[in-house]
UniProtKB/TrEMBL annotation:
Catalytic activity: dTMP + ATP = dTDP + ADP
The enzyme's E.C. designation: 2.7.4.9
Gene3D superfamilies linked to this entry: P-loop containing nucleotide triphosphate hydrolases
Keyword Transferase: yes
Stated family: Belongs to the thymidylate kinase family.
InterPro entries, A to Z: P-loop_NTPase, Thymidylate_kin-like_dom, Thymidylate_kinase, UMP-CMP_kinase_2
Protein name: dTMP kinase
Start and end residues of each Thymidylate kinase-like domain: 228-407
Entry keywords, A to Z: ATP-binding, Kinase, Nucleotide biosynthesis, Nucleotide-binding, Transferase
Pfam families for this protein: Thymidylate_kin
Gene Ontology MF term list: kinase activity
């Protein structure tokens, strides 16, 4: 039975267990018949105790919330939480924007754990995350008590509800918030997010200033625009340089040179902020592509597909099957971004890619280190690339010799582009 009009359905939660398994639980609606049932599998039996927190929206929008989430993650990863397991948590529900947080399992049920969590949250600026405490009642049913924590040490009970297992929704709960969240869907959205960033990241103002000077609707010239995508060490640099020479083309890269000096700054920020930088870079790059393609063919080393694929793989936790289905809007090219004529996706086996990475001896980015350490993350990035449409990626096996790969690439270009 749906909740009465005007009353929101109680929140649901998705917790990511080891092995990337998503387990869902919910709060029983007020007035629901009580029933003693086994607690959802993410809650170990006594003497263990569990706590959770979810970061609420803050002034400055998602930027401040994203930074608070990362700060809490860092603090929970430090010493003082020995023996506790911290798991990613997502709070969601109808008419609720998903909120990220953590479920903390304390197998010993130490009384000091709850006090330290409360102290950690009280130290944050308002609106600070409330603290949820999970305990079994006299009948053995698991209940959540949600506490608002005052900076001075007081607390106020916001909610007391029974916790029940829940089925997984048809679509990952974070999918609906991707566009407009970690994946700005347009240039105005990227500009708005950069303005939010400017209050805490000075470099965002510089990026915004450059973006504001770009034409709002740049048009591609008469020559073809060819994008080369792929994970690091798949041979993008070699291919783009070789194709540039073979076609007497202009080679451009994302992020463009005019903002690449701030790349390290944004790479050290949460995904929401990092992807805003790359999205803005795509729109800045589009103006360069428009100008260059009026005089010669243009080869682009990474463009929108990279921004989208990494955002999707990061924000959609769980396994590959938890990704949004093919043809979901997150895989669509933005309507206001200059579109290329062809997108090539270079692919390699995981073993060969790691072998090439080790031979390069270059410092890894955070995401590249994640790709190497987490095969599931790599699989999600690659599958996201494959689901992109309008334009879709044309896959090219990059494992043969450089000469063979170049020959194949030129053949694909000749088939799809008027050269």
């Amino acid at each position: 039975m749906p909740p009465p009009r005007g009353r929101r359905e109680p929140p649901r939660y998705a917790v990511e267990l080891p092995g990337a398994q998503l387990l869902h639980f919910a709060l029983a609606p007020p007035g629901a018949a009580a029933a003693a049932a086994a607690a959802p599998g993410c809650f170990p039996p006594p003497p263990a105790r569990c706590y959770s927190l979810c970061v609420p929206p803050a002034r400055g929008g998602g930027v401040r919330a994203a930074r608070l989430l990362r700060r809490l993650q860092q603090r929970l990863g430090e010493g003082g939480w020995a023996g506790c397991r911290v798991l990613p948590l997502l709070c969601y529900g109808p008419r609720r924007r998903p909120r990220r947080g953590f479920l903390l399992q304390d197998p010993r049920g130490a009384p000091g754990t709850g006090r330290r969590l409360a102290e950690l949250l009280r130290a944050q600026a308002a609106p600070r995350p409330p603290l949820a405490v999970y305990e079994a009642d006299a009948r053995g049913a698991l209940r959540q008590r949600l506490w608002a924590l005052a900076a001075g040490g007081g607390r106020r009970l916001l909610r007391r509800a029974r916790v029940v297992a829940a089925a997984a929704p048809p679509l990952h709960p974070a999918a609906a918030a991707l566009r407009g969240g970690a994946l700005p869907p347009s240039a105005p959205a990227a500009r708005a997010r950069l303005r939010q960033c400017a209050s805490v990241i000075p470099e965002a103002s510089a990026v915004l200033e450059i973006l504001e000077k770009c034409p709002r609707h740049p048009e591609k010239g008469e020559f073809p625009v060819i994008v080369v995508e792929g994970l690091d060490a798949t041979g993008k640099t070699t291919v783009t340089e070789s194709v540039k020479d073979a076609l007497n083309a202009v080679l451009l890269r994302s992020p463009p040179a005019c903002i690449s000096q701030w790349r390290t700054t944004f790479d050290n920020e949460p995904t929401l902020i990092r992807r805003t930088f790359y999205a803005a870079g795509n729109y800045i790059l589009a103006s360069e592509i428009a100008k260059a393609s009026s005089q010669s063919p243009v080869i682009v080393d990474r463009y929108w597909h990279s921004t989208a694929a990494y955002a999707i793989a990061t924000e959609i936790n769980g396994k590959v099957e938890d990704l949004p289905p093919a043809h979901h809007e997150v895989y669509q090219w933005p309507k206001d971004l200059l579109k290329p004529d062809l997108v090539l996706l270079l692919t390699l086996s995981p073993e060969e890619r790691i072998r090439r990475l080790q031979g390069r001896g270059l410092e890894k980015t955070k995401e590249e280190a994640e790709l190497e350490a987490n095969s599931l993350f790599r699989q999600k990035v690659e599958e996201s690339y494959r689901r992109m449409v309008n334009p879709a990626c044309q896959e090219v096996d990059a494992s043969p010799s450089k000469e063979e790969v170049l020959k194949t690439v030129l053949k694909v270009i000749k088939k799809h582009c008027a050269l």
